[in-house]
Amino acid sequence: MRVLGIDTSCDETAAAVVEDGSRIISDVVSSQVPLHRRFGGVVPEIACRAHTENITTVVEKALADAGLAPAELDGVAVTNRPGLIGALLVGVSAGKAIALAHDLPLVGVNHIEAHIFASFLAEPEPPLPAVALVVSGGHTTLFLVRGVGDFEELGRTTDDAAGEAFDKAAAMLMLGYPGGPAIEAVAREGDRTAVKFKRPYLAPDSLDFSFSGLKTALLYHARGQDSRGRRAELLPGVSVPDAAASFQETVVDVLVRKTFLAVKRTGVRHVILGGGVAANARLRERMTAKAARLGVGLTIPEKRLCTDNAAMVAALGGRLLALGRRDDLSLDAKSRVA
Ligand code: KG4
Ligand code: ZN
Asked: Closest Cα to residue 22, out of 280, 322, 303, 274?
């Protein structure tokens, strides 16, 4: 079963063809980062205009790279939730048009669940049930995954997502956008024990997350408390590499501790990571070490499949279609899930 996946939920226009929910035939991602960089973040209006301009070319390239005509596909999967509403609508409309024109089954996919299914493009496929941590710019959520479309949420962030915290931290340290890769790069030169940030664990047994207090602590460290962080420049003597490394280590400590608390609580023996922050080398290293120490299995997608892409959408969508799930042309885009 060959399924075309489409994702336009944020600032990447993406299309991919995946076979049987597991083998990538083609994978095209057109990044809008250069368009948003000068604004220091994603501007929704610019994102949906760029998706409108790019979507046809990106889908055509995914089909050309796969060597397939649209009629040779077995289905279309499109991210319809959650995300920027105007951005989502572009992909949903394109997916409907292709399904209608070529009489193909259509299924709407949840972007967060698709991040989990990026791990099912890996060899060997992860066993289920598993605990999944999705850490991206919009979400930090722990799930118990029992099967395709069978997810139980165990915990989520009560304020900022981890990726959002990385982006804001990078802005405070004047490292530019997007922040995650910038923090990771400069943190390599820093001492991760230099700044003692309090770990936001919430209650000892909580599987929820909170990163806004850490963000404020970094702001006060870098720009001072008196000015409420509104100083234009860094305080004298602040080491950007040390601050970045200490910030990153704090986020990683929390993500690792809570993921393995979820493992303990559920009794499952496998962990899946997904989302842009899962591309972070320090998080990958710490998760790998902890899983090995506990004898727990771990699947982390390769880096390009951690950040937004459509192969993950086709992977989950293909499996949903195989189970008989279908949406009709009334499929709507939703900025939030429940
Ligand atoms: O999954 P994603 O591409 O989009 C969303 O669904 O949100 O995640 C983007 C987020 C951004 O906040 C970005 O700063 C973060 O992932 N990110 C990273 C790294 N690469 C991307 N965070 C930390 N380290 C990285 N290497
Ligand atoms: Zn994402």
From this structure: 322
